Amino acid sequence: MINHSSTTWKQVVFLLLIISGILILSFVSLIYFYPFLLAFIFSLIFLPFVNFLDYQWRWNRSLASLIVIGSFIIILLTFFSFLIAEIVQGLSYLVKVLPSNMEDILFNIQHILDQTIFPFINNIAQFSSNTDNSSMNMDQTMEELISQTGFQIVHLLQLTLNQLRDFFMAIPHAMTMIFFSLLASFFMTKDWPQIITWLHRYVPIRLFQFTSRMMTEWKTAFGNYIKAQLTLVFITGIIVFVGLLILRVEYAFTTALLIAMVDILPYIGTGAVFLPWIIYAFFQSNWYMTIGLSILYSLVVLQRQVSEPRIVAHHIGTPTLIFLFTIFACYQFFGFIGILFGPLVLILSQSLARAGIVEEIKIFLAK
User: Fold this and answer.
1) 291 CB neighbour count, 10 Å cutoff
2) What's the pTM value of the predicted model, to 2 decimals?
3) Fewest CB within 10 angstroms: 134, 140, 329, 339, which?
């Protein structure tokens, strides 16, 4: 009995050491070898197309891999070219219309200051006029306020310029990492049958089968997660399109399509479009658009917050309460970045469970 208990404890310690080693290896790989992890993800995307050309059309596997990856690069470059062209066109339009609109905005700001802010300050000054130094104190307060405002504006400009500098300095490094990732994904995709054969030869069959089951479950759950996000984006697009039609906005369909695409961005989402638009309409004294866009933005945010847990949980096959608990736990441990990676953590945990990790641990401890 003592012998069996001692053996069980040794197995538990050994299992904990294996799990710790896997976690440490994953952490180190994520920091230092992430281009190869990215290459692995690319390979999973390319493999169905390469396998089809290899097994169905009898193409040379190297040629099939080269053509698939080349097509992916061309599609990616076309997308970014279109995106840059749209940005340039938008900036050109702003250069034409912004000067006149800025004059209107500055006039409206001056009007608000003259009609609201300055009279309020004068009322405060008159209310505190029982002291001899009240006028001087008010002037000093205004000077300090103007000075602090100017300092904050300069600080904001410096911060923006530094961020732009860091962004442009990071582009060469990012391009290098993407190049290595695509190059590694080419060799992974081309040599995938040899890699599988090597794993069959040197990896224990039970571990290989478990890993295969886990990868199958992970790909299914991740695909369902993407479908859930596309469903949410489609719902957002419909709501925005109907709202813009009610507000009689020109090019409502194109605008709704762009806002729906922006909705994919984490943290920012539709606010990247709606908030500047609402502020602009406010300073233009266009109260109809200001109120209408505010209501529409509130509906979009409310719909997203209410629908996302239920739709995502339904698509990945998890109870909504478990999904919310995972997101909250990741937020508590990792901050806002945890909200982004929370669903991925849940998908990985669920894939491990469905692949039979609990049964495998029981079998290991029962030996």
Assistant:
1) 14
2) 0.70
3) 140
Give the C-alpha separation, 235 to 21, whole Å.
Answer: 43
> Degrees (nearest 5) of the Cα angle 165, 168, 174?
135
Tell whether 167 is covered by a domain.
no
Does residue 80 form part of some domain? Answer: no
Q: What is the SS3 assignment for 66-126?
A: HHHHHHHHHHHHHHHHHHHHHHHHHHHHHHHHHHHHHHHHHHHHHHHHHHHHHHHHHHHHH
Instruction: Decide if pLDDT at 135 tops 60.
Output: no
Q: What is the domain count for the chain?
A: 1
The 10s digit of each residue's pLDDT in 155-182 is: 776 777 777 677 777 778 888 888 889 8
Asked if residue 247 lies in contact with residue 292, where contact means CB atoms within 8 angstroms, the answer is yes
> Domain span at residue 321?
203-367
- Residue 55 structure tokens: 């097994």
Percent helix / strand / coil, the chain, rounded to 5: 90, 0, 10
Domain-located, residue 308: yes
Tokens describing residue 219:
């790909």
Q: List, as own/partner pairs, every contact residues 356-362 make where C-beta atoms lie below 8 angstroms and the sequence separation is at least 24, other chains included.
A: 356/210, 356/213, 357/210, 357/214, 360/206, 360/210, 361/15
Token reading at 195: 């890699």
